Amino acid sequence: MLKQIQGLHHVTSMARDARENNRFFTGTLGLRRVKKTVNFDAPDVYHLYYADEVGTPGTVMTYFPFPNIARGRPGAGEVGTTVFSVPRNALLYWEKRLSDASVQGLMRETSFGQDRLRFEGPDGDGFALVEVEDDARAPWTEGGVPAEDAIRGFHSASLRLRDGGATEELLKFMGYEEVDNSGNIKRLARKDGNGADVIDIETAPGAPIARLGAGSVHHIAFAVEDRAKQLEVRKALLDTGYQVTPVIDRDYFWAIYFRTPGGVLFEVATTEPGFDRDEDTAHLGEALKLPAQHAHLRPYLEQHLQPLEA
To answer: Taking every annotated instance into account, which residue ranges of this chain make up the domain VOC (predicted)?
Structure first.
């Protein structure tokens, strides 16, 4: 069993409109944009990062906003719901805030004994807020949400699969343990993690296969401390039979990727070097930052990328 995994690092999704996406996460949800850069493989598309003050692993929601992309089709083989942690008694505040912002899909529910508020992102993204009494992570407090109600980071993510057995075994190999189950959902958790410690496996044998598009999660990333720990994880996965990419430099972390038995794309990302490697903390996410291989495109990109602020 691997001991290097610390919990979630980030969740990366697809969107249709960059400005709308930025407005939703920085305005409606009150997160901080900690990086404005571009997709390594499609540099004419933003890669936007939203998180706490410094982009702590376990708080980072990222997006590729592809203009005019079709909406995704929910189904099996993908991340179903991304769940954020908020303090106890915060849901009343959030229910009003999201309702006032005309956010769709609002629904109160109880899951594994915790009060939750489900809602949709601008592209139908599946989200929820869950009240967590003892989450000590510091929130971003300059996004218009009171500190006593603000998002602390991720609580969990659910994987919607036709058959969850092999993915459950993978997660257990990655250091997760089964802690509960409810109906067709099995809950696994990483003990002593970074706060973003929970993965729910939702088994839906009759679900159609998901189609990637706006509102879909592209991949989900797990955190390790550094490159040495990442190489240990990579070797262990290769030895187990998984096809794992070489280490890829993503400027703010190093990444490896592999496809799970259920079809979900997993990443293992390092905490180092962090989002302040090319901007000081006070100005994270303000300037357009480009990977070195795309630096020559700056004049074109600055003219053609959609301005995020109206």
So the answer is: 7-132, 153-271
Half-sphere exposure of 294 (CA within 13 A, CB side): 20
In the chain, helix, strand, coil percent, each to 5?
Answer: 20, 35, 45
CA gap 34, 12 in Å, rounded: 14
DSSP string, 51-108: ESSS--TTSEEEEEE-TTPPBPB--BSEEEEEEEEE-TT-HHHHHHHHHHTT-S--EE
Asked if the structure places residue 23 within a domain, the reply is: yes
Per-residue pLDDT, 277: 97
What is the residue whose two structure tokens read 């958790």? 189
Structure tokens at 283: 């100005």
Per residue in 203-229, pLDDT (tens digit) is 999 999 999 999 999 999 999 999 999
Q: Which of 97, 60, 27 is nearest to 253 (CA)?
A: 60
Query: Can you say whether the dihedral through the CA atoms of 62, 300, 284, 307 is positive or negative?
Result: negative
Tell me which residues of the chain have a pLDDT lower than 50: none
**Bond from prior residue into 273 cis (ω within 30 degrees of 0):** yes
* Integer CA distances (angstroms), 221 to 26, 93, 206, in order: 21, 30, 27
For residue 192 the two structure tokens come to 């002593």
User: How many domains does the chain fold into?
Assistant: 1
Average pLDDT, the chain: 97
Res 176: pLDDT: 98
Q: Model-level pTM?
A: 0.97
Q: Which domain holds residue 132?
A: 8-304
Q: Is residue 1 part of a domain?
A: no
Distance (Å) of CA 143 to CA 2, 110, 133, 146, 200? 37, 27, 22, 9, 29
